[in-house]
Amino acid sequence: MKRLSDIGTIKDILSRHGFIFSKGLGQNFLINPSVCPKMAELSGAKEGVGVIEIGPGIGVLTQELCSLAEKVVAIEIDKRLIPVLSETLNEFDNVKIINDDVMKLDLNKLIKEEFGDMKVVVCANLPYYITSPVIMKLLEDRLSVETITVMVQKEAAQRICAEVGTRDSGAVTVSVNYYSKPEMLFGVSAGSFMPMPKVDSAVIRLNVYKEPLFEPENSKNFFKVVRAAFSQRRKTVLNSISSSLGLEKQTVNKLLSDSGVNPQVRAEKLSMNDFAEISRRISL
Fold it and tell me: Which of 26, 128, 173, 257 has the greatest CB tally within 10 Å of its CB?
């Protein structure tokens, strides 16, 4: 198995394939040999389990996943990396590479066709620029997956794993907690990548609920309220919701008070139940 965490090996492979890093795709390849084995193991990859990997790059994490899992389906948007992956993964017969945009794929259909009755997990080193959209797609599509283990920017990891109702929480915190229980696994320094990013990363795991812990009467309203409440973090929840949703302050003030929420607090102070109660009373 090629040592894809070795800088010399990486440069040789990329040079032979004429590959140049794309800033637009946020490409940073792992060169820390201890990260991927740990990440693959903590993802739940093992015999009898199928894995969806997003953005395999040159295949350093993919190799570890293939060594553990029954089958790996890796989705790579950059067609230039397909011949690279064909070389670096040629010793594995349990991997399938799909050259496509994960945001456009029907992942429920993919899971059914590729994994059948297997347990499925997701494992990925996500580009910083598309972290939240990918995570929310994976959750909102209600996929039949047990866990989602991803490496993201450290700040994003802290936000996602924050307790709802605390200063570090945000709209993504509430949204992720609606579908799963997030947990921080371990940090990854910027020096673990080539090229080296300007910030550190962290690996988190989302333990996906088979059904949400609670179901607001109107889930569309729930997420609209959450986004509106956090749209202007420094303002009160009254001002944020009123401004974002185009509602009269008097109307919003009353529905917040009727919901048992102090209109003068910021969104970060609200609980999941607070958002659910507001969404039940609001007309959108």
Answer: 173
Closest CA to 49 of 145, 142, 141: 145
For residue 178, give the 3-state DSSP assignment: helix
Q: Identify the architecture of domain 219-281 in CATH.
A: Orthogonal Bundle (1.10)
Q: Which of 229, 256, 258 is nearest to 243 (CA)?
A: 229
Give mean pLDDT, residues 230-244: 95
- The domain limits of the chain are 7-208, 219-281
Over the stretch 162-183, which tens digit does the pLDDT of each residue have?
A: 999 999 999 999 999 999 999 9
CA distance 279 to 249: 16
The residue written with tokens 């609209």 in the block is 224
Query: Per CATH, which fold does 7-208 belong to?
Result: Rossmann fold (3.40.50)
Spatial strand order of the sheet with 49-54 comes to 95-99, 71-76, 49-54, 119-125, 147-153, 201-208, 180-188
